[in-house]
Amino acid sequence: MPRDQQPTPSTAAAEVTVPAESLDKGIVKDIPLAKLDGLVLRILQGYKLFVINGTTNAIPVKEGTWCAGFLKGKWHRPNVPQDKDMLAQFTDASTMVLHDKDFVSLGKLIEARRVCKGDAQIRNYTIVESPTEADPGFFTLEASKANYWEIQPFKIENELGTKSVSQAVVAAALPTSVWQGVTGIYWHVRWATCGLSPIKPAIWFSRNFSIPGGSAIQISATS
After folding, report:
1. C-beta of residue 69 within 8 angstroms of C-beta of residue 203
2. 107 — phi, psi (to 5°)?
3. Can you give the pTM of this predicted structure?
4. Coil, strand, or helix at residue 107?
């Protein structure tokens, strides 16, 4: 089965906050998080993921902050999608994406494009206008083609993590299903002649939260 495009965040995983010192066994890799000084992504055996605050002060994390990357990949349309294939799936105007470093909804992008260019399309989708009282510009999306991004595999060689692993590639070494709680898979997009087009996926923090000093928050599925 193909990998899901954007897992639904689970509040349960976000509530698992523990002392950082209790996570000193079964460590596979520690990866410092860029632009989040003092925070480290810790991978434990069994694909358990924690963000650890090694300082004495609380550190806030904002929605739309980058968490992890997938290395490289390529677009294709397989006859039978495999585990390494990620479907670039958009749902409606509320779907969040990354555009020019902004964490923004498709609705906002389409609205701005229409003001600027008069019309806007989304590649491989038909926009179905579905206005609501709260959002007159709301729309849903009907897929015309299924476009998959094939992940280039990346493996941490063994439990000691002897291979060099950076924040930019670590998501390719883990099952996409482990990203839960305050994280999600979102797509970088850009405007092209055929409309707004996905470029590649990445893991981003999906809401605002704060980690107390000397504590850790679990961001993987709790099983």
Report:
1. yes
2. -60, -45
3. 0.82
4. helix
What is the spatial distance between Cα 28 and Cα 46, in angstroms, rounded to a whole number? 9
Q: What is the pLDDT of residues 85-129, one digit of tens each?
A: 999 999 999 999 999 988 999 999 999 999 999 899 999 999 999
Ordered by start, the domain boundaries in the chain are 11-218
Amino acid occupying residue 48: K
Do 104 and 116 form a contact (C-beta atoms < 8 A)? Answer: no
Burial (CB count within 10 angstroms: exposed 0-12, middle 13-18, buried 19+), residue 77? exposed
Cα 187 from chain centre = 7
Can you give the length of the chain in residues?
A: 223
What are the tokens at 67? 């968490």
The order of strands in the sheet holding 85-87 is 73-76, 148-151, 85-87
Distances in whole angstroms, Cα of residue 117 to Cα of each of 99, 101, 111, 114: 17, 21, 10, 5
Cα–Cα dist 59/39, whole Å: 8
Whole-number Å distance between alpha carbons of 31 and 49? 11
Report which of 73, 68, 69, 97 is spatially closest to residue 85, judged by C-alpha positions.
73
In terms of DSSP bridges, do strands 39-44 and 139-143 run parallel, antiparallel, or are they unpaired? unpaired
Within its chain, how far is the Cα of 91 from the centroid?
Answer: 16
* Strand order from edge to edge, sheet including 39-44: 17-19, 215-218, 48-53, 39-44, 27-32
